């Protein structure tokens, strides 16, 4: 972590919100940012992919099917887009500001594995990123997503793809819970919470807030970890 940091200051907490398209991720991320502000917790909302950077613009063109790229090449671009912001994420956290991150490396893995790339290959470029203190998986059924107006026009917004993505997100959650129960030292050390995002906006907000209050209490006492690095 950066050397200019005031060591008496409590660090911010890295909260990642993951989920399918139409799960309400971005709405909930915004609502959480507002609630943190009301509670006088300094917080910043970020989103991946960040389509404003040069790499982000290539990703945007790919997602809108304006360009075609090899599956591995686009995977690496999504990862590079996260690495572009890694230093600024660390600095922000060390200055005491909490970050709410709309999608992260787990999206990176599940969307590419859904296309047939190997799981461990997909994880490798993101190894060492700042690890979230809490990862929330907003789970919504394809039926619910359809009720909400279905998917949009972008490349991955197809029901078959979304079903595979959902199963893979669930595997992240279950694998970590199993490892926790076995006391497996090689576990990822990411605290996953699955949230039923098929409920009302208010109910989902309350569930998220409960989890966030807990992590705001606990996480600043321990150093920020690195993603998928054995500790
Ligand atoms: P969003 O802006 O949250 O709607 O995300 C755009 C799309 O990109 C969405 O279908 C999910 C997908 N996506 C997000 N992150 C990644 C990633 O790291 N890798 C891949 N392959 N897809 C991603």
TrEMBL record:
One of its GO terms (biological process) is dUDP biosynthetic process. Keywords: ATP-binding, Kinase, Nucleotide biosynthesis, Nucleotide-binding, Transferase. Its EC number is 2.7.4.9. It holds the Pfam family Thymidylate_kin. InterPro entries: P-loop_NTPase, Thymidylate_kin-like_dom, Thymidylate_kin_CS, Thymidylate_kinase. The keyword Nucleus does not apply. It is an enzyme of class 2 (transferase). Signal peptide: none annotated. It comes from the Eukaryota. GO terms for cellular component: cytosol; nucleus. Residues 17-208 form the Thymidylate kinase-like domain. This is Thymidylate kinase. It comes from Sanghuangporus baumii. The lineage of its organism: Eukaryota, Fungi, Dikarya, Basidiomycota, Agaricomycotina.
């Amino acid at each position: 972590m950066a050397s200019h940091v005031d060591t008496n200051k409590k660090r911010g907490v890295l909260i990642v919100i993951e989920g399918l398209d139409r799960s309400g991720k971005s709405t909930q991320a915004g609502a959480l940012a507002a609630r943190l502000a009301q509670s006088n917790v300094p917080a910043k909302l970020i989103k991946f992919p960040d389509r404003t950077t040069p790499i982000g613009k290539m990703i945007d063109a790919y997602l809108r099917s304006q360009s075609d790229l090899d599956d591995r090449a686009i995977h690496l671009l999504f990862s590079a887009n996260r690495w572009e912001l890694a230093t600024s994420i660390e600095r922000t956290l060390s200055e005491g500001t909490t970050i709410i991150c709309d999608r992260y490396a787990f999206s990176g893995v599940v969307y590419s594995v859904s296309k047939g790339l190997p799981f461990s290959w997909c994880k490798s470029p993101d190894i060492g990123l700042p690890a979230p203190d809490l990862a929330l998986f907003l789970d919504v059924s394809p039926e619910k997503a359809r009720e909400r107006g279905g998917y949009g026009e972008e490349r991955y917004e197809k029901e078959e793809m979304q079903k595979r993505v959902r199963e893979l997100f669930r595997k992240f959650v279950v694998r970590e819970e199993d490892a926790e129960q076995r006391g497996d030292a090689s576990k990822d050390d990411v605290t996953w919470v699955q949230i039923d995002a098929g409920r009302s906006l208010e109910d989902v907000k309350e569930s998220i807030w409960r989890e966030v209050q807990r992590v705001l209490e606990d996480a600043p006492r321990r150093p920020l970890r690195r993603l998928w690095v054995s500790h």
